[in-house]
Amino acid sequence: MGTSVDVAVVGTLNVDVVVRVDRLPAPGETVLGHSMSERLGGKGFNQALAAAALATTALVGAVGDDEPGTGMRSAVRDGGVDVTHVVQVPGQRSGQAIIEVDDAGENRIVVLSGANAALTPVVVEDALDALDPKVVLTQLESPTAVTEAVAGWCIRNRRRLLLNPSPVDALDDAIVGAADPLVVNEGEAAFYAGVEGDDPDVVARRLLEVARSAVITLGADGVVVADHASVERIAVEQVRAVDTTGAGDAFAGTLAAHLAHGSDLDAAARQAAAAATALVARPRGG
Question: What is the set of active-site residues?
C-alpha cells in the first residue's frame, strides 16, 4: 500500500455539451434549443472535485490523447485532485455527454464513453493498491468489470464502498451487498429494490435487504437515509432549481468526503444535501 488518501473516485471524465431548451421533447418530437455550451464533467470528474473540496482525493479514470482529455486532466488536478491514475489512452477520443436542460432545470443525458471504456480492472486495482483510500466511490458509467473490481478490492481490503449505481443496470448481489451506502435517486432506488410506486421509506427498507446502508435522494423532497438502526427523512432547503445537472455527483462526492472524515451517515448526508442544493440554484453558463 502507498500513502493513503481519504477518497478514491473511480469513474468517468467527459466533455459535456449542454443544450438549453424551453422544455424537454417527447419521444419523436423536435424542439428548438436556445443556447449551447461546453463544460467539463463526467461522474468521476464531478464527484472527485466535490470530494476534493473537503478531503484528500484521487481520481482513477481514462481520457483520450486529444485536447479535451488533456484539458480535463488539468482541470481536475487544478481542483485539488490527485490525477496520477488518470491515464491518457493513445488513439482514443475522450468521453462526451450530450445534455438537454429545460427551463425548470430538469435534464436528460446521453453519454458516449470514448476512452472511459478503456479503463480495466487491473489498472483500477493497481491504482487502489497505491492510493490505499479510506473510502472508494464509484458509479456505473465505467465498464461493469471495473465496478466488479472496485467492489472486490473494497471487500478484500475492508474499505468502505460508496456505490452510486447510475445509469441503472443489473448488478451481481455481491456488488450491491458491498455498498455502504448505496446512493440512488428515487427511480434508481425502485429499480434496485425491485418495487415501484411505494413510499421512499418503504423502498429504503427493501434496499437494506441487499445493501449495508442506503441513501435515496428525492430532489426538493429531501433525502432518505437508511441503515439497520433506523430510516430517517432529511429535509432540504427549498430553492429555485436553475440546472440540476451534476447535483447527484455533488451529493455523492460530499458524502464520501464526510464519511472519510468519520461522520456518521446521517450527518454526512445532511452536508451532502446542502452541497447539492447550493449547486442546483447556481447558474452555470450556457
Answer: 249
